Known about the structure:
The structure holds two protein chains of two kinds.
Chain A: H1 8-26, H2 31-60
Helix pairs in contact in A: 1-2
Chain B: H1 16-26, H2 30-34, H3 38-57, H4 70-84, H5 88-95, H6 106-133
Helix pairs in contact in B: 1-6, 3-6, 4-6
Amino acid sequence: MPKMNLSHFEAAVLFALFASVVLGVITKRTDAERLRYGVRCFAYFLAALIGLGWLMKLGHG
Amino acid sequence: MATNVKAQPVAEPAGGWYGAVLLAWLVPGAGHFLLKRPWRGALILASVALMFLLGLMMRGTMFQPQTGDVLTTIIYCGGFLGDLASGLFYLLTVWLGYAQPDMAGHVHDYGTKFLVAAGLLNVLAMVDVYEIATKQKD
């Protein structure tokens, strides 16, 4: 099996993508609401990822 | 506010809700296929399968249940249950010898988390299947 090397950012974005798809699929009542919720979850994941990344960078000095 | 959502017919699963949930555990997304929700089943299958495959390709390790202090028990037994929740993917990986030894490094660590998270996402899908099969949800 091929070995894959991903950076922290790439791995976290992929994680956010798959988690958002499943969270979107299993919640809400209509497809439009599911799509909106999935996109919003992905945006929140990315915001947390970038925000925490900057926090660690600034905290580390 | 009244909503005009057209409810999809809920197919009665052959073996009751437990049959649908068992199938959803074994093959991620299959419970939704059984309950006539093919697109949702396909998205769950693709997400869980890709996450599991990426975890394997990053050489993530499979947890084995271990007991000891509380933290060790929670991490290893919880991780094992998370891995096991991927169903056939987990079983095939172990049976075919693709389970990797634990190694240091951030990529391996992400791989391990991807493997557990794939199982946890499948648990969410199983709960969704249960709610659809018992008519608590459209």
